[in-house]
Specification:
Blueprint lengths: L8 H12 L3 E5 L4 E9 L3 E6 L2 E6 L3 E6 L24
Antiparallel strand pairs: 1-2, 1-5, 2-3, 3-4
Length: 91
């Protein structure tokens, strides 16, 4: 049995984009869109840096975090389609 505690997906994602200094977009539950780079984060908040300004964002106010890292399909939103369900486009 591994004695190392499991790291949750949220911490893994945030730590990866923080270390890579990847530009991200954070959408708040109010609809506000924030962009920048993650400087730090903890259990309750994310410190976002943009144009030499820092913003402390409480996680309960965050709806979605999108990484702007380059990739083959980085310009398309990712949609999970459960097995057995057909994906539809433009309906």
């Amino acid at each position: 049995m591994d004695s190392k505690p499991a790291q949750n997906i949220q911490d893994t994602f945030l730590n990866t984009v923080r270390k890579d200094k990847s530009p991200i977009t954070i959408y708040l539950v109010s609809g506000v869109k924030l962009t920048g780079r993650i400087r730090s984060f903890d259990k309750y908040s994310v410190l976002l840096e943009n144009n030499a300004q820092e913003q402390l964002i409480f996680k309960h106010a965050i709806s979605t975090v999108v990484s702007s890292r380059g990739g083959m399909h980085s310009d398309r939103p990712h949609t999970h389609v459960p097995p057995g369900v057909e994906a539809t486009q433009g309906q």
